[in-house]
Each structure stands twice: as structure tokens, then as C-alpha cells.
Amino acid sequence: MKNITIVGSGLVGSLLAIYLAKKGHKVSVYERRVDLRKNRISAGKSINLALSDRGWKALEGIGIDEEIRKVAIPMKGRRIHNLNGDVNFQPYGKEGQAIYSVSRGGLNCKLMDLAEHWDNVEFFFEERCTSVDMENATAHFENTSTGKKSFVESDLIFGSDGAFSAGRLSMQMTDKFEYSQHYLEHGYKELLIPANEDGSFKMDSNALHIWPRGSYMLIALPNLDGTFTCTLFFPFEGENSFASINTEAELMEFFNRIFPDVVPLMPTLVHDYFTNPTSSLVTVKCFPWTNKDKVALIGDAAHAIVPFFGQGMNCGFEDCTILNELMEENGDDWTKILKAYELARKPNSDAIAELAISNFIEMRDLVADHKFLLRKKIEAYLNEQFPEKWMPLYSMVTFSQIPYSEAMKEGKRQEQIMQKIMAMDNLEERWNNGDLKSLLPQLIS
Amino acid sequence: MKNITIVGSGLVGSLLAIYLAKKGHKVSVYERRVDLRKNRISAGKSINLALSDRGWKALEGIGIDEEIRKVAIPMKGRRIHNLNGDVNFQPYGKEGQAIYSVSRGGLNCKLMDLAEHWDNVEFFFEERCTSVDMENATAHFENTSTGKKSFVESDLIFGSDGAFSAGRLSMQMTDKFEYSQHYLEHGYKELLIPANEDGSFKMDSNALHIWPRGSYMLIALPNLDGTFTCTLFFPFEGENSFASINTEAELMEFFNRIFPDVVPLMPTLVHDYFTNPTSSLVTVKCFPWTNKDKVALIGDAAHAIVPFFGQGMNCGFEDCTILNELMEENGDDWTKILKAYELARKPNSDAIAELAISNFIEMRDLVADHKFLLRKKIEAYLNEQFPEKWMPLYSMVTFSQIPYSEAMKEGKRQEQIMQKIMAMDNLEERWNNGDLKSLLPQLIS
Fold this sequence. Notes:
The structure is a homodimer.
Chain A lengths: L2 E5 L3 H12 L3 E5 L17 E4 L1 H8 L4 H5 L3 E3 L1 E5 L5 E5 L7 E5 H13 L4 E4 L2 E7 L4 E6 L5 E5 L2 E4 L6 H7 L5 E16 L14 E5 L4 E6 L5 E8 L12 H11 L10 H7 L3 E9 L2 E2 L3 E3 L2 H4 L8 H19 L3 H31 L5 H16 L7 H6 L5 H19 L4 H6 L2 H10 L1
Parallel strand pairs in A: 1-2, 1-12, 2-8, 5-14, 12-19
Antiparallel strand pairs in A: 3-7, 4-7, 5-6, 9-10, 10-11, 13-16, 13-17, 14-15, 15-16, 18-19
């Protein structure tokens, strides 16, 4: 039994608390903000998330997957809104497969409640971590309300305090710590499509809606109350950018021209656009994640990624799944557990970081491309006919537990094959007349 | 006239103070350590440096190049010590070209003295910068002797506080700041070859000595007192590494086997090896370097690089040269000066960072290679015959003011040509019989 401090009571910190409590450890969770359950903060950013297989597996491990599934909305595919008003649908996977829109706040509160049911878990709020002493697992805090400084000694500290982790900053100061933070040239802003007066959805609720427009895009995810949370991913600078839209007239001219079908659905567009913050998109990579049996980073603190593959939370949850497996294998040998944990997870978090950036290009650009749609059809066919030999990259990442790094490698192999296929003459004709189908087994082997 | 705070009184900070003082600014320099001139600290690391053209140009700008040249030792080429005892010589450039070994401490003291001659420059020691307020150019300090905390308001702050800059750390916390720190798998340790009893050198003093051994190497630079400062660049981990040598016996077995000719020259090898620290080698990249007209990073604080091209100090000094040119062009419009400064220097510091890492491979590995030596001869011939068309990469970096990014680009073009030449059949014969020479004009055009 260890005395364990967790810094950060977000999704991953709260889930981790439960996994550690189940193993009998005494867990203290320190959170910078107030108790989310008493003050639901909706800061106009990131209020919903897409749960997929890796996330579900971690929730299964603590037995709350069924309960969460009841409040999750399945999104079976992408609904693409073209500039000319056409809308089409691309399934994410096979029949029955979906990703699930869940409320970030709702899920986080649920996990905190569940963690607090354990006698060996305690939460402390408004405690901002200022630094971590790597050698003796001591965390320093400042109370954001009283300003009182304190420190907590424990056997082991987990830093699950997100992309701007205080624990990681302490590690950054140590010799030979690899670190990078890289921002995209795009930022994002949340907008809202409200429900109809009767509470029903204004669009198909079983899809993730995308308005792909080349160098930028708008997306919408359904919420239980009939609303859609929309996110505009848009360059910070340039011709069409956050910097170029400064007046109501400029905003409306742009939306009427670029997202004409959205305008009637967004009565509060002007207010939301000029009130909600413009946020940036960062990728954080670092190594090592752990120091002996004293300190470990987990979730975004170890590997913040951009949101375009919908894997940020799923990847952090998978950290907990893997850590739990390693606890089961190695008992209380925490030096061994943590070393194995960072070695297992680092290549996979690097892979999903790269895949997430690539998927932005696919989402904002390719999904509206005629040839891309044909390619998706061919890939879906391959998956259907040769499920052992061909699982599309999206499916490996989203609907399997295949390590991200292996999925990426296999995805690159498939990419080469698909490029050959897509370069064939009269491809569309050959696809339609069935000629291509007879060639595929040879092409993919 | 501006009130300017410089954080760090190292080589670049002290030189910058002089350039700013000459323009009439009031300059306050804050240094974490004690006054170097009162306590010459020789921490067993980095006590000599190689000055080359970019460094000299910056010293010319403040009129002390001739004075420094008197205490600098020209190194006209590399003296390569092979494992079999053979020693050969590779000139760095053309007749009359050399890089210069200078004492880091001596040069730094000289620059501080010169800065202090100005009434508008003041130094403060034992003041550790803890943070910088980007918006109003306020620097916070803690006195390392008394513990007293203070802050200094000014119009503009320069962070010249090295690879682990406090000013840069404050910038890292701001949105959209690009940052990476990357360590090599090699570390370094300083060793010593003392002078003969009569004060003379034990080896040729007009060369940089290299013992290239594939994945690691030893180098030696001459000092004015007849000694050589040697540096062992060695992997931290692995079969032959700092981790693998833990006893006197292991050390001597290794040196007798790998550097047999050095052992008799190093009477204090065992003591030095086990007493001197093992240091790491970091590359730091970041952007932006400036914030409006309030804050700017310079030297290692903006772009720490590994030492294998001998350009760390030279690059930092060139920052001062360029900044001085921009002050002359733009008067007191500091927003314009700083924006132009970072845009001009960033691509060049990125280029020298990459070149410095590549040059490690050349130094530790290729210089002992027969084919590499032939290639160097061919390149020297090209430079001699076609000086307008062919200046080797090493010369562009070391003996010219060509921007590093352009040198790197031209170096890549030359690399492609040389690879074609080196792949020719019977190359050595064709070189020796003059056949190749007649083909070269066509090959390089």
C-alpha cells in the first residue's frame, strides 16, 4: 500500500484515482480549480468529447461503461456539408460501430463521484501545484482562494494536470529531459446550434457533422439536450482567419459565403463568436515520463495532442488501462511498473500525436474530395472482404486496441498500396464495373 | 535613450552591453554568479573556445579584435590521431585561414571590463533572475547571497542568460510559444594535457587535435600556458560509455586500448576523469524571441546548440552584429528592430543548430576515413580553382559572413554533387592521374 498524490482531478486523474484505490492505495487528489460538481464551469470550450473503444475499455475496467453508454450519443459516421448545400454520409466503420459523444463535465463529475465512494480516496480543491520535488515525491501547492502555501509528502506522485502540467515543468529543469511544445497555425472557437423549441435536434444527431473547407473547417457534435456544440478550426492569421474577422459584418459575410446552411441554425452566432475565447492547439512531447518509483506523468501532462482523431481522452484512459495491467503483473514494484509504463506508452503517444495532425488535413480537406470518397469506398470493401488483412487506419485507431504505433505503421503500408490503386487509369469505371474488385486480392497481398 | 536590463553577463551579454552603451542607452547587467573577474571559476568545463570570422567581426565592431588576437592561438587545421598512431593534418581552409583558441574566462573578463568603462553601464552580481514580466519589461531577481528578492522595471529586457534562460522560461508559459529542448545521447568531460616543464606544448599548438573513434572522440585545444584542454565526447550509456567506466582499472584499460598515445600525455587522467563533471549536450529552439519592444532573447537563451561546429559563441556574437545593424537602420523604433532581429536570426540559428549536429558525425567518424580525406582534397581543389563557384561548407560557416541558412542550402547542393563524384569508378586513380580534374568544371556547373 502506497501513499499516492495525484495532481489534477480531470478525466484521467479521476479515473486513475479509482484504479489506484481498487488496488488498495491511499490516494489524495489535488485540483487547481473549484469542485466541478458544485460549480459547473462551461468556459465555451471543449464541452463534449468522442469516446471510442480505448476509452470504453478503461471504463469497463471500473465497471461504469454501461452507465455512461446510457448518456452517450452514438455517431455512426461523418455527415459532410458541402459548399453547394449537398450533404452526404461516410460511415466511420462497419455496421454497429460508432464513436460516442459524451459531456466532458458530466463524465468528469461521474468519475469524481465514483472515486469518492472509496474510503481511501480524498479530493482537495483550489490547490494549485507550483512544483514537484522529483527526488522525494513532495508536491508544493498554493491555495488559489487563501494564497496559503503547503506541501504534501507521499510515496509517489502522478501528474495528471494536463498540457501545461506543473509536475512536468519541474521535470523539464532536470538534465537530459527531452521536451517540445508545438502549436498549430490554427486555433479554434466554440459556437452553438441550439435545439428546436420542442427540444429535438436541428440536424441528424447520430453523426459528427463536418463542413470541410480546405484550409479550415467547422464541426458539430450532438449533446443530450438537443443542442450541437460546434467548433470552428480556423487559421490565426491570413486572408480568412481569426485575425481577418473583426466586425459583425465581416463575420456574417464570411459565414453566409462559406457556411450558408449553418447561418439559419445559429441564432447566437455573432454573440458566441465575439464572446467565446479563441484557443490554440498544442502538441506536447516529452521523455522520460517517470522518475524511479517517485513521479510519473499521465494523460495530457505526458502527451498533449491535437483533437482531430478524437483520441486525446481515449489515449489518456488507455494509459490507465496499461498502468493497471502493469500493477497486476508487477505487484508493488513501482520502479518496474513505472519504467515499463513509460516504455510501453511513449511510442504509442508519439504515434497518435502524428496521426492526429494528419487527420486534420483529412477532415478539413479530403473528406469533400470526390476521389477521396471513392477511396473510402474501396477501403471499406477491402475491410469487409478481407477483414484479417485490411482494417482501415481509422478503424485500427478507433475501434481496436491495436497499439497506436502499430496502427500507424500498418496505415503507412496501406497508404502505399492505396496510392498505387488510386493512380490506376479509369479507376472509377473499373470500380463500378467490378473489374477492380477482381484485382484487389493481388494488389493488397 | 532606453533603460535596458540585460540578464546574464556571459560573453554575449557583456558584448551586447557594449553595443547598447555605444548607442547611448542606459544598461544594467544582472548576473547570477559572482563577479568572474574577482573569482575565476574553472569548473572543469568549457574553458576554451574557437573564435572564427563571425566572432571576429563582432569584436571588430567594438574595436577589440586586435587586442584579443594577441592572446588567441591560431589553429590552422585538424590534426587527426589515428588508432594505429598515425597523425595527419587537414587544413581548415586556405593558406592564412585559421580558427582561434581563446580562453572563455579571459575573453569574458575583457568584455566586462570594456563594458564597465562606459558610464552608462552598470553590473550587478549574485542576482538570479526568477522570472520576467513580458508585458511591462520587469525582471524579478533573488540575491543568491542574501536571499533578498527584488524587481527591476525598465524599457526593455534582453535575456542573455544561456541555454536554461529564466526569461525564456517565462515566455514558454505564454500562448503559441514554440519550444524544444533536445539532448544528444553523448555527454562530455574535460581532461587535461599539461605543458612541458619548460612551459612548452606537448603537441603541435597550431591545430585542433582530434582522436576520432567512430561513435565517440577526444579533442584537444591549446591554451596560452602550454596546456591543452581536452574534451571526451562519449555516450552516456552502452558498451563504451560513461556508464561503463566506473573504476580506475576500467578507465586505464579503455584509454590504453583506444587512446594509447594520449595516456603518457595525461598524468592526471584518473583524477580528472573521476573528479570533473559529466555534462550533457542540449539543442534549444524556440520562437518568438521577442515580445513587442519589451523583451528579447539573444545568444544561447534563444538558440543553444551543440559545440561541434565551434559556432555557439560566434553565432551569439553575430546576433549582436545584426542587432547593431538594425539599430543603425531603425533608430529608436524598437518594435521594428526586434521584429526584424528575430526574423533575420531565427532561420540562421536553426541552420547552425542542424549543421552542428551533423558536424559531430564528421568529426568523430569521417575524419579518419580514407575516402573522406580524398573528398576533402577534391573540395579544396575545387575551392582553389573555382573560388566563386565552390566554397566548402566548413569555410562558408567559419570563414565567411554568409548567412548560416544559405550556407546550409549551398552545402546540401554540394553534397549531392560530391556524392556523384565519390561514386565514380577508379576515383583515386582518376584523381591521381589528373583525369578527374578535367571533368570537374562540368560536374559542378
